[in-house]
Amino acid sequence: MYEYDEDCLKTFIKNQAQLFDEPVAETLEEAEAFLEDCMAAVVDSIEEVKEFLQEEGLDVDGMSDEEIEEASEVFALPGGRYLIVEG
Predict the structure, then answer these.
(1) Angle at 4 between CA 39 and CA 13, to 5 degrees
(2) Residue 42 forms beta bridges with which residues?
(3) pLDDT score recorded for residue 5
(4) What angle separates helix 6-15 from helix 28-37, to the nearest 10 degrees?
(5) How close are the terminal C-alpha atoms of the chain, in Å?
(6) Residue 57 CA, distance from chain mean position
(7) Among 24, 21, 62, residue whose Cα is nearest residue 40
(8) How are strands ordered across the β-sheet holding 82-84?
(9) pLDDT tens digits, residue range 37-65?
(10) Three-state SS for 30?
(11) How buried is residue 31: exposed, middle or buried, by Cβ count under 10 Å (0-12/13-18/19+)?
């Protein structure tokens, strides 16, 4: 289980449209509950994003770091961390 700090929650609320057609959270509390329900992951580097996606069965071989960062389920966080939300 991951801890979702305020940066994670605010980034998710601000950018949730990249993954969902309609808002799924409007408050920090709703965002935290949603991220917990879908078991979103927080990782420290783009390399860890690649590892996570590979473990989930996605083929990321040959994808550039930029292509991975642009994936709809990947949210860049301040400080170089990433939030991964499976829609």
Answers:
(1) 90
(2) 83
(3) 97
(4) 90
(5) 18
(6) 16
(7) 24
(8) 41-43, 82-84, 74-76
(9) 999 999 999 999 999 999 999 999 999 99
(10) helix
(11) buried
User: What tokens were used for 34?
Assistant: 């949603």
Burial per residue of 6-28, b for 16 or more beta-carbon CB atoms within 10 angstroms, e otherwise: eebbebbbeebeebeeeebbeee
Reduce the secondary structure of 51-87 to three states and give it as a string. HHHHHCCCCCCCCCHHHHHCCCCEEECHHHCEEECCC
**Tens digits of per-residue pLDDT, 1-36?**
678 999 999 999 999 999 999 999 999 999 999 999
Cα–Cα dist 15/82, whole Å: 13
pLDDT band at 86 (very low <50, low <70, confident <90, very high): confident
